[in-house]
Task: structure prediction
Amino acid sequence: MTTQSVSVENGVNVAALLGAREALSQAPEAARFKWRATSKWLKGTHSRATVEGFFGLGGEQTHRQPFQFDSDHPEIFAAEDNGAAPVELVLVALAGCLTAGVAAVAQKRSIQLKSVSATIEAPMDLQGILGIDPNVRNGFDRIKVHYEIDADASAEEIAALVAQSQKRSAVFDAITNPTEVAVTTSKA
Amino acid sequence: MFPGQVGVIDVVVIGAGHSGLAMSRVLGERGIEHVVLDRGQVGNSWRTERWDSLRLLTPNWMSRLPGYAYRGDDPDGYMSSQQVLEFLENYRNWASVPVTSDTLVTSVAADGSGYRVATSRGVWLCRAVVLATGGFSQSFVPRIAEGMPRGVQQLHSRDYRNPEQLAKGRVLIVGGSATGLQLAQEVHGSGRPVTLAVGEHVRMPRVYRGRDIQWWLLASGLLDRRIQEEEDPERARRVPSPQLTGTSGVTLDLNLLRDQGVEIVGRLAGIRDGHAQFSGSLWNTCMLADLKLNRLLSAIDQWAARTGCAPHVGPPVRYAPSAVDDRARLSLDLEEEVATVIWATGFRPDYSFLEVPVLDHKGRLKHDRGVISEPGLYVLGLPYLRRRKSSFIHGAEDDARELGAHLADFLASVGSRLRFAARL
Result:
């Protein structure tokens, strides 16, 4: 592995991350986070979700500002296409998580990144969600992610960055492993 | 010793496996009075907890204990359980190890300035206790097993002997280390279809450049690597055992099993409504294993070139990447399609008899390379305790010598046993 003593700067504060790892291994309660989002229906298939607060380090936390995400369906579904399709947002989340991981692992391994691009493709058979064929699942058939990375490292070291990022990715885990989902309702 | 009897001694060693025998030899050389207790006989787990075809993963020439090397006529072979047992028994006799067998330790508690070791056959009062029960005392089955449908036969690899004990029908084997792969091959060979669920794993060829991979690991110093050299010791200790089999020249890996017809799927992530759910991370776990394998081989090649042994060995090679079926199934109907599940999910140490506050919030022993947080308590034989080879038979000597030296200093510092006995 290339080891550079200075000047690798991917904009990730690895010392802080490692500090947090050390601190949280000593205080497992502080490591228990809760992520939240709210969503409001606007019209048709168009909704707007907001994320702002979350719980962690033993208390309520907030983002620097609220972030909003519009989701809708494309026009070919007779919708207005006011935002990404929810399934596309899943891919966005996966890319965001894996790429953050690539940057963090690269910083830790003293690898200077020059560019990182990910392309994600996820085939889906709509016969599932449309209820045409009960043997077809609703979700993706599979997800293919391709990374093109320019960095001061060998092809093998770059492959190892991406592999390690998957190993430590929350979204990768959430997609590849089953998660209990409980949906409840109340009348407003 | 009989129930109700009390014995007084300097050191009690718990466990008459290779670690306990090695420690006994070291203590004997130092003239330290001790006894080695075992719930059964010497090498008990080799006698009672191994499948029929099992072979050691290290070649015979590597098997050695303090002062005692392999003496057989097949240095490049791999011992069966019976041969391991004979090796340990021969060592016990050669080194005159004071083993008290069929003695189950029920508790270890602080007692004055020493310890009280209660057993099924009386009590020992001692200055120091060495835990040599190893890291593999209890079979480990993940909690998701609770969701298993009733009609499915389940067993842990510890209770597996041969395929004949299994019902006809598909066998789901959970675990991608040496055990899982070996059982997958054997069970598949018996005519039962096999699905093998594989999580993170360590891939290794049996023979590399004409030499056993263990030769390379030993010669290049990788097996002597110290735990304090590891950036993340906890993680280094958790690395799964490599996919190896004790058959000359045979590399057992996922590609071979796949070619033979074993179905490879991702890590068993859950059981729901009678269906096993497999992780979609198989691609990544295989990629990680391939990358690590190539890093290991590169390190070996560099060492070979640097030390000049390269001309005497074969040329460097690289192996085909792990073939992953991108349509690997993500679920399996256990009730309909599976007759038996074998958990090749490993073991955990058993510290339930310790009545001394030496476990952390996760039930792990608090120790520094075998020196437990309470003075006079020691552990050895755990994976990567001090060196990467710590849990291997050949790894026992160095650890036993170093911990034995520490223990001798400790005994010297707390004074003679006679004063201790006089207190009674």
